[in-house]
Please model this.
Amino acid sequence: MEPTPPPAHDPIIDAADDPSVDELRALQVTRLQWSLRHAFANVEHHRDAFVAADVHPDDLHDLDDLARFPFMTKADLRDHYPFGLFAVPREQVARVHASSGTTGKATVVGYTAADLDIWGEVVARSLVTAGARPGDVLHNAYGYGLFTGGLGIHIGAQRLGCTVVPVSGGRTDRQIDLIVDLEPRIITVTPSYFLAMLDRMEERGMDPAGTTLEVGIFGAEPWTDAMRTEIEGRAGLHAVDIYGLSEVIGPGVSQESVDTKDGLHVWEDHFLPEVIDPETGEVLDDGHEGELVFTSLTKQALPIIRYRTGDLTTLRPGTARPAFRRMDKVVGRHDDMMIVRGVNVFPSQLEEVLLGIAGLTPHYRCVLTRPDRLDRLTVEVERRDDTTPDDAARLADDLASAVKQQCGVTVDAVVADPGTLDRSEGKAARIIDHR
Ligand code: DLL
Model:
């Protein structure tokens, strides 16, 4: 038996359309019941997993009951590659995307026409929250293709009524020429690639703060408040965070408001968040840091039930869009936690520290080695143009002692000449593991 499609809904784009918290909770229960039934009726994996956990969709009466249902992980997607978790006949799948992932085989995700419509809605809502308006020129430098960044932003920007410039990633000089010529107000790009654009503008003798850009919507990788200060200072724009993942939909799962810049509002009318203890799986109360887990509430093609993202964050009450809870900026992925002689550290913590040292650029990478069976972390950074090679040793000392003091971990610091570390054109690879 195929469950009925989710009921038609009024789209929510502007804050004026937002429900009250009570309305939202009621909507979430109805949609969650639908989504669990949909997954159970149409995906063998979910049916088997529910039976094994001794739960049935009819057992869900309120949101707390979700804790009885089993988790899903990336491994489930890999094991059912490519279409094994789809809940609709393949003919109803209008689009697929794929993520190569840093480890292992690709995973494929899919969308019905109705799913694409909702994706456009949540991305349009994100763009508005970020400060975009209908009629804006939007320069979209997220990669187009199997990655969800380019086409995901595109569909939402079109829905909002922006003039989209679909540049995709790469060819930095052309990016800059287009920014100069087409005068965009908004740019969407990974923060690491935007830094590479800023460097190139400066090399060409331009002042990056002199462009028409007013808002940068940065995501697809972790970045810190210290990086926000660096980018806003150099580029003279508002830098806000956008989050998402292909398994849930792509960009547009949560968005930071340009007015408050205080974490990302989760669009929980479509994606129900939980934060769990990554070791025990226990659901944590809001305000506690743990692993973010999502359940889709309206997705047809690829329903996800309690999907473990691996991303670490904290849920908090809404502010700019009060009905929707916020998540803190993602600290990092659980897999990106480096354990150096017993001390846990994320690249984002090192980023905070190195951006506090005048004389260093924001480009960095973390290299892990294991000489003499002891883990060693080398932080590779770059000195700024206004320093000399003689400053390198002092800067390395400053960085190593600041990291020791602020993160409690002993690192080697290597300070390279300006412009010598690889620049990313998409997601930056922060960790190089040679162990
Ligand atoms: O990166 C979707 C996206 C595109 C988001 C453009 C924002 C902008 P995936 O390639 O599936 O999808 O990678 C998802 O990237 O689980 C996080 O680990 C990380 N990630 C995404 N956005 C952020 C962010 C897209 N704002 C994975 N902060 C996620 C930190 C992020 N990490």
Summary: Residues 99, 142, 147-149, 219-222, 241-246, 250-251, 309, 311, 330, 333 surround DLL (CB under 6 Å). The mean pLDDT is 96. The first helix runs from residue 21 to 42.
